[in-house]
């Protein structure tokens, strides 16, 4: 597998782009080597500029839940673009998107579109502070909510991967109101509310953290966060930029039965184009300009082409397909299969296969999964938070990453990222991945 053209492009990119990439997580610095450059992506595969084909488990970091270049998304983009690529004037697609989000996520009574997950979380924090008239925000170590100053504190994803969880260039004054706590530790949250009575505007949390690899909330933890915020006049903000519309139609909040006051979205609702959104209780959202005093804006917010792509993605996700073959106990009829059933089946098959491969190779791997999101940690201990994740053997991860890449399987080039399945992945893709893992894990 040669990557001569990628190497030439990377050398050129380094002259004009810091690190040769427009987002740090795309670089291979954490695993060694150089990133490849993509020529084309279709369904569950990407082809680099040298013609090498990979099964893609990054899925553009989450948006490609239907696989790449889905024909219905491409068609929607073409039709929308032909009518103009941006108006800066309200357009019907914005209303369609808002109604879809509000109907799929019951806790969202009103929603505002923006252009990235970072904008969504940054705006939700400002809104929580404006609504509660309090300054402090709680976040959790290893959770990543984009690169807004006040949230770049013990942040995950690239900030963690490249050793700057507390980024340079952020004045202490900008983060003095940010309280960071260990995830899955209720006592730490209780103590924070005790020590900051009446001062905490809200808790922002990835309900299933996917930016330090992937780990899950312990039973009752999310319910606890909902109760303690309500008891203290603070808001619970679910950052569902990654989990939204992925872990269920209604996201992690549907899967875990929680109704946060505010939610942040991105990725999937853009169908691959730049989009973010935040929404929640109408009385809170109506504090936003032009109705209320909390300012938030965006030239391209509700962009018609991005809306068309996202609407096509959601409509396809919401389309029920052939019978699942699971008889419905009440009627005995076969329940229709959904995209989420398919994602769960694929996820379970990948998990079972990877665990078998690790056991056969005698390599300690913790394979965490929630639906179509997953992470393989190279440690024998369970991973429930950032401290556990940090125990993973990153040297082994590096060899695993490159070994799998040489087999034509592309995982995220960092131990501290989640993997993503799509409805375009097939059982054959999973079998290929597991066979490759069996070979690679034996070499570690
Ligand atoms: P963006 O600003 O990158 O659209 O979204 C920020 C964000 C917010 N919240 C969560 C839970 C997120 O996962 C993200 C972005 N995720 C990373 C992947 N770990 C994006 C990849 C990148 O930084 O290039």
Please explain how this structure is put together.
The protein has 444 residues and is of the alpha/beta class. It has 2 domains: 171 residues, Aspartate Aminotransferase, domain 1 (Alpha-Beta Complex), CATH 3.90.1150; 247 residues, Aspartate Aminotransferase, domain 2 (3-Layer(aba) Sandwich), CATH 3.40.640. The protein has 15 helices and 16 strands. The strands form 4 sheets. The chain has a 7-stranded mixed beta sheet, with helices on both faces. It has a 4-stranded mixed beta sheet with strand order 1-2-3-15. α7 runs parallel beside α8, α12 packs parallel to α15 and α14 packs across α15. About 1% of the residues have low confidence. The site of ligand KE4 has 21 residues, from α4 and α5.
Key features of this structure:
single chain, 444 residues, alpha/beta, Aspartate Aminotransferase, domain 1, Aspartate Aminotransferase, domain 2, 2 domains, 7-stranded mixed sheet, 4-stranded mixed sheet, 15 helices, 16 strands, globular, binds ligand KE4
SSE blueprint and pairings:
Elements: H1 4-16, E1 38-42, E2 45-48, E3 53-56, H2 71-81, H3 92-104, E4 110-114, H4 117-132, E5 136-140, H5 157-161, H6 172-175, E6 178-181, H7 186-195, E7 200-205, H8 221-231, E8 235-239, H9 251-256, E9 262-266, E10 276-280, H10 282-285, H11 304-317, E11 321-327, E12 334-337, H12 339-361, E13 366-370, E14 373-377, H13 386-389, H14 394-406, E15 409-410, E16 419-420, H15 427-442
Parallel strand pairs: 3-15, 5-6, 5-7, 7-8, 8-9
Antiparallel strand pairs: 1-2, 2-3, 4-10, 9-10, 11-12, 13-14, 14-16
This protein binds ligand KE4.
The site of ligand KE4 has 21 residues, from helix 4 and helix 5.
């Amino acid at each position: 597998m040669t990557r001569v053209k990628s190497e030439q492009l990377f050398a050129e990119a380094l002259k004009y782009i810091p690190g040769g990439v427009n987002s740090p997580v795309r670089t291979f610095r954490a695993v060694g080597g150089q990133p490849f450059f993509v020529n084309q992506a279709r369904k569950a595969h990407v082809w680099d500029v040298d013609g090498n084909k990979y099964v893609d488990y990054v899925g553009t970091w989450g948006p490609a839940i239907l696989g790449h270049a889905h024909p219905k998304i491409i068609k929607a983009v073409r039709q929308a673009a032909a009518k103009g690529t941006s108006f800066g004037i309200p357009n019907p697609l914005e209303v369609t998107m808002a109604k879809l989000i509000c109907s799929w996520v019951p806790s969202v009574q009103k929603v505002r579109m923006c252009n990235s997950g970072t904008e969504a979380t940054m705006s939700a924090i400002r809104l929580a502070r404006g609504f509660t008239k309090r300054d402090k925000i709680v976040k959790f170590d290893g959770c990543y909510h984009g690169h807004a100053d006040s949230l770049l504190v013990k942040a995950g994803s690239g900030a963690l991967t490249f050793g700057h969880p507390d980024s340079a260039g952020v004045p202490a004054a900008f983060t003095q109101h940010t309280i960071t706590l260990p995830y899955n530790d209720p006592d730490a949250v209780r103590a924070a509310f005790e020590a900051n009575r009446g001062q905490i505007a809200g808790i922002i949390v990835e309900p299933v953290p996917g930016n330090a690899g992937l780990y899950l909330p312990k039973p009752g933890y999310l319910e606890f966060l909902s109760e303690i915020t309500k008891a203290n006049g603070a808001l619970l903000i679910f950052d569902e930029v990654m989990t939204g519309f992925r872990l269920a139609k209604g996201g992690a909040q549907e899967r875990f039965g929680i109704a946060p006051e505010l939610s942040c979205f991105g990725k999937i609702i853009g169908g691959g184009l730049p989009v973010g959104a935040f929404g929640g209780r109408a009385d809170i959202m109506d504090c936003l300009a032009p109705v209320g005093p909390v300012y938030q804006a965006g030239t391209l917010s509700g962009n018609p082409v991005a809306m068309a792509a996202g609407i096509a993605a959601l409509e396809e996700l919401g389309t029920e397909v052939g019978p699942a073959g699971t008889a419905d106990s009440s009627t005995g009829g076969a329940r229709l299969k959904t995209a989420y059933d398919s994602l769960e089946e694929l996820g379970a098959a990948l998990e079972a296969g990877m665990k078998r491969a690790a056991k056969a190779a005698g390599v300690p791997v913790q394979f965490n999964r929630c639906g179509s999101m997953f992470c393989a940690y190279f440690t024998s201990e369970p991973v429930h938070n950032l401290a556990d994740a940090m125990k993973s053997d990153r040297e082994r991860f590096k060899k695993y990453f490159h070994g799998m890449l040489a087999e034509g399987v592309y995982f995220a080039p960092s131990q501290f990222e989640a993997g993503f399945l799509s409805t375009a992945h097939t059982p054959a893709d999973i079998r290929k991945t597991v066979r490759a893992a069996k070979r690679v894990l034996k070499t570690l």
